Amino acid sequence: MKRISLFVFLAWCLRAQDGTPVITGEGSPPTGYQFILNYTGANLTSLCIARSAIQTGQRLAVHVAISAVSKANPAVVTSTAHGFNVNSRPAVTISGATGTGWTGINGNFVATVIDANTFSIPVDSTGFGTLAGTVTFVTTAPRTGVPEWAVKKLVYDGSNNLIWIGWLNGSSAYQAKCSDATSTTVSQQ
Questions:
Q1: Most exposed of 39, 43, 74, 91 (fewest Cβ within 10 Å)?
Q2: How far apart are CA 111 and CA 100, in angstroms?
Q3: Cα–Cα distance between 95 and 60 in angstroms, integer?
Q4: CA end-to-end span of the chain, whole Å?
Q5: Under 8 Å CB-to-CB from 22, ≥6 apart: which residues?
Q6: What is the DSSP string of 30-71?
Q7: What are the DSSP calls for 89-130, one per residue?
């Protein structure tokens, strides 16, 4: 019963202000989408929606700094505030690593997000030397602090009754940051 209710709720949430669906068509959408559900206690407070993978444009143009990579199996990459949701498995392309063995982390990987600052890649770096170079990554996956999300906000009164549902900043366009979904200072229209 809960699954059906959540599905109906999500289908209802995925409509623009004029009532048209954000994701159109029957069956699978032409591109994948990532959803992040944010809760406060038992209440769903926001729903973030982004295209799962974009192969062109801003996502691949932004090189995100990597400050360290562990000598471990798997290698753990430190990139402060990388922006990936902890439940996602983003594709990353790492470049710039030099030093004995470290060129082995240059390439395409599916990352396992550990926390807000680290993720692992399936590379055994235990025998590598000293990491050198300016190491960065690019990704085709959405990051929560980048304005490429449609964010639906839900507001409750003091008795946990739902009193308002609307798009963050009044728009269902993919132009909001999911990280702003919990902010009370961002415009709710």
A1: 39
A2: 22
A3: 13
A4: 31
A5: 14, 15, 16, 49, 150, 172
A6: SS-EEEEEEEETTEEEEEEEEES---SSHHHH-PEE--EE-S
A7: --EEEEE--BSTTGGGGSEEEE-EE-SSSEEEES---TT---
In sequence order, the 6+-apart residues with CB closer than 8 A to the CB of 36 are 47, 48, 85, 87, 144, 178, 181
Model pLDDT for residues 134-174, shown as the tens digit of each residue? 999 999 889 999 888 999 999 899 898 999 999 988 888 88
Please tell me the total number of residues recorded for the chain in this structure: 189
Instruction: Give CATH for domain 58-139.
Output: 2.40.30.180
Return the structure tokens found at 5.
């209710």
Write the pLDDT tens digit of every residue in 82-96.
999 988 899 999 999
Query: What gap in Å lies between CA 75 and CA 119, rounded to an integer?
Result: 9
For 73, phi then psi, to 5°, come to -130, 105
Residue 189 to residues 75, 119, 165, Cα–Cα distance (Å) = 44, 36, 9
Tokens matching residue 113: 């997000």
Q: How far is CA 52 from CA 73, 85, 124, 149, in A?
A: 27, 12, 28, 10
Between CA 52 and CA 109 the distance in angstroms is 16
How far apart CA 51 and CA 174 sit, in angstroms, is: 9
**Cβ–Cβ < 8 Å for 119, 79:** yes
Domain ranges of the chain: 2-52+145-180, 58-139
State the pLDDT at residue 183.
65
